[in-house]
Amino acid sequence: MTLKQALESARHILAASDIEEAALESELLLRQVLKIDRIQLYLELDNELTKKQEEGLRRLTQRRLKGEPNAYITGHREFYGHDFRVDGRVLIPRPESELLVDRVISLARGYHAPIIADIGTGCGAIAISLALELPQAKVYASDISAAALEVARANCQKHGVADRVCLLQGDMLKPLPEPVDLIVANLPYVRRQEVNDNHFEPSLALNGGRYGTEQIGRLCLEARSRLRPGGGLLLEIGQGQEKAVTSRLKRLFPRAKIEVVPDLAGTARVVTAVLPAEPYAGLNLTKRMPE
Ligand code: GLN
């Protein structure tokens, strides 16, 4: 069987099981078996697979048919133009979260050398993408899961930012050693009763409590004492959560400028709150204006 025939056959099997991007997914699986990049795959389409490689592809296709995400099978997922290692210890980065990164980057331009914290970093995709785009920034990345941080550490090394992304283990903002300019987070926001539908990703990374907004709500509260004057909080949210999240933010930060940003599908996906530049009375924050 040639590579081309193998691709076609895997695509056919995946499509028959209603896997949407069957062509792309079969390509990723075959590349995983052969350990080659996309260009090489297309150069070698007429080459023959060995029996062992055919068997390898069959095994990976079967795993995919049982529902295992492609990113866990291959151990990779692309995010913001970079390749990240992923496995069952972390949530698989979603394209929607690239919107969150875009927003942080445009806000970060307002600061000279921003201090940014990515909370619940998982595999580190958001923190590392930010570090790569914003060479002046200092980035903290925290997660309550020590196992997730091991994956993030490997990704920091892979992308050469281990010295610029400071990984911290702990709950929410507790491990942060200093107040920051920007807090960014894609926290768990799936409603508790819907989490079990997902058998593969860690429920810790998905479970947002009864209404899905429990963790987001906790972070908003903690952000009050950990954001510098003029700082910003940027949150990814689940479908239908914008009212709950924006009204909580308005209560906690009455003078902040709050915005809701839709994703490409038109769903409200990111909420941002930017504080006024002067410190809130009564809060003991080091004064540091954005430049
Ligand atoms: N977007 C993910 C999903 O719906 C959830 C990610 C999260 O909880 N932050 O599967």
Show unreliable segments: none
- The run of helices and strands is HHHHHEEHEHEHEEHHEHEE
CATH third-tier fold name of the largest domain: Rossmann fold
Cα gyration radius (Å) = 21 Å
C-alpha geometry: elongated
Strand fraction equals 15-25%
Number of domains: 2
Proportion of residues in helical segments = 25-40%
Structure overview:
The protein is about 40% helix and about 20% strand. It is an alpha/beta fold. It folds into 2 domains: about 5-75, Orthogonal Bundle (Helicase, Ruva Protein, domain 3), CATH 1.10.8; about 75-275, Vaccinia Virus protein VP39 (Rossmann fold, 3-Layer(aba) Sandwich). The longest helix is centred in the N-terminal third of the chain and has 15 residues, at about 50-65. The N and C termini lie far apart (about 60 Å). It binds glutamine. Glutamine binds near residues 186, 187, 188, 189 and 206.
Q: What tags apply to this protein structure?
A:
Helicase, Ruva Protein, domain 3, 2 domains, 18% strand, 11 helices, Rossmann fold, 7-stranded mixed β-sheet, two-stranded antiparallel sheet, alpha/beta, binds glutamine, 291 residues, 9 strands
Helices and strands in order:
Blueprint: H1 3-16, H2 22-34, H3 38-43, H4 51-65, H5 70-74, E1 76-79, E2 82-85, H6 97-108, E3 115-119, H7 125-133, E4 138-143, H8 146-158, E5 165-169, E6 180-185, H9 192-195, H10 214-226, E7 227-236, H11 242-252, E8 257-262, E9 268-274
Parallel strand pairs: 3-4, 3-6, 4-5, 6-7
Antiparallel strand pairs: 1-2, 7-9, 8-9
